[in-house]
Hints:
The chain is α+β, with helices and mostly antiparallel strands. The protein has helices spanning about 75-90, 125-130, 135-155, 210, 220-235, 240-245, 260, 265-275, 285-295, 305-340, 350-360, 365-405, 405-445, 450-455, 460-490, 490-530; strands at about 15, 20-25, 30-40, 45-50, 55-60, 65, 105, 110-115, 160, 170, 175-180, 185.
Amino acid sequence: MQAASVMDLPPGTLIGERYKLLKSIGQGGFGITYIAWDKKELCQVAVKECFPQGVCVRDPHSGFVVPIRDSYEQRYLKAIESMRREIRTLSGLNHEAIVPIHDVIWGNGGVYCVMPWLPGGTLKEMIEQKRESITPEQAMTWLRTLMDALSYMHGRSITHRDIKPANIMFDAQQRPVIIDFGAALNRAERTVTTTTSQGAFSRNYAAPEQITGKGRIGPWTDFYSLSATWYELITGIPPEAADARLAQDDMKPLAKQASKLGYQVEMLALLDCNMSLPVNRRCQSVEQWMQCWKEGTLPQIVDPAKRFRRFLGFSLALALLGMGSLYGVYSAIHGKESEISGGSHYQSAGLREELIRYVKEEIHMQDYTDLCAKHQKIMDRSKEEHFRQIDRYVEEFSAAIENVEQYSEAEKLSGRLLDEQERLDRHFTRDNQELLGNFQKEEKVFPHDILKSVKPRNLGEELMMPAVSEQISYEMAQCASAVHSRYAEMPDRMKLTDEYQKLNRKLEAKINLLYAKEQEYGNVKQEEDEK
C-alpha cells in the first residue's frame, strides 16, 4: 500500500455521523484506507474509501469525490461497482480468518466500507521487520489457518485472486486474517470469461493464468499466490513473476534449500508444486493439499484431455436439460447490457449532471430550496422583533434604575427585572419552537429517502444513484441547516441574557449605593437622638 496522498480526508472527518477518521494509512489502486474511531462501539475500526487512482479527485471544499473528467465517468462507476461486489462477497462470508464487513456508508459521492481494525499489521511488514524470528512451526500454523479460510471461501465458489503478504493481516492475538476482496471472483454470482476478468493482481504473486489472461481461474490460482507468499516468508525474497518464468524459469525450488531453511522438505515440495506454471500440476482443492501434506506426497498430475472429456459430457447434458432457461437468462442479461451500451443519451459525458437534474425534478428540489429560504426569512423577522422587545426592556429598566431612590424599592425592582427577563425568554423560546415546528411540518411532504422515492431509468443510473442520492441529500441538509441554525443558536435569547446581566450589575451597584446612604443616614440620626 502506498503512502498517504493529499487527496485523503483530513483527521476528524465524520463518516456517517459515527466514524471519526483518525488518520490515513495509505492508498492502493482502488481506495484509501483510514483508521477511525467508532463513536458507538468506542473502538478503532478500519474505513476503506472507494477512490481509484488516476480516475477521480476530491473537491477540496465539499469533500465530494468526482471523476477527473467526464470521459472517466464509466471508469469511476466500475470502481464503485467493484467495491459493491466486494461488499456483497464479504457480507456472505463468516470465518475468523476472513475480514468481516461491519458497516457500509454512502457519502461524499462514493462508498465507505467499515471493517475491524487489525492491530497486528500485515505479513509484509512482519517479513520486512522480523522475518528471522518467525519459526517454522508458527509459519505452518498460520498456513493451516489460511488454508482453512480458503477452503471455506472456495466452497462458496469464491476465488480471492490477490493473496499476497500485504493482504494478510494479524489481529490482536496474532492470528492471520485475509483482507481486500476487491479482485475476488464470485462464480456463484455471475459467469465471466478469464480473458476479461483477470482482476487486479500483484505480479510477483499472481498465477500465470491471471497475468496472461489465458487459462482457468479456480482454487489453484489462490494456491499459487499463497505459495508465492510463503516463498517470500521462508526465503525473504519475493518469487520471480510468473510471466518471466514462462520465458525462462530460474526460480530455485524451496525443496532444494530444505537443509538451510529448517522446514520439512515435504512441505517445501508441496509449496513448489503449487507454484508450478501449469495449472494441472498444482493441487485442485484444499482437501487435496491437506491430504498430500498429511501423507507426505505430491498431487497426481491432472490429465487435461480426460478432464475435458468429462467436462464436455456434463456440459452437453446440462445444455439439453436447460437450454430454455439459459436462453432466458441470456436474454435478460443482454437486455440489461443494451440499456447501458445502446444509443441512450444517459451514457453521454454528462451522465451525472443529467441524473442529478432528473432526481431534483422528481423530488421538487427547487420547491424545497424555496421553502427553506422562506422560513429563514420568517425566523430572521421574528428575531428582529425579539431584538426590538429587548431594546424596550433595556430602556424601561435603565430608566427605572436611574430613578429609584429607596433601598426597598430597588430590591423590588430586582425581582421585576428577573421576572421580565424570564417572561421574555419563555416568549422567545415558544416563538422559535413554533416557527421551527411549522418548517418541519411543511418539510415533511418532500421525499428524504431518495433511493426509495426515485426510480432509476436504466442500469447506469442504478449504479450511480447511491452517490447522486448522497450528494442531493447533502444539499438538502445544507438548506435545512440554515433554518435549524436560527433556532439552535437562538441569538435573541443570548442577547437577552447579556442585557439582563448588564442591567442586574447596574441595579446591584445602585442597591449598594442606596444601602450605604441609608446606613449613613441611620448612624447620623442615632447620634442626634443620643445628644
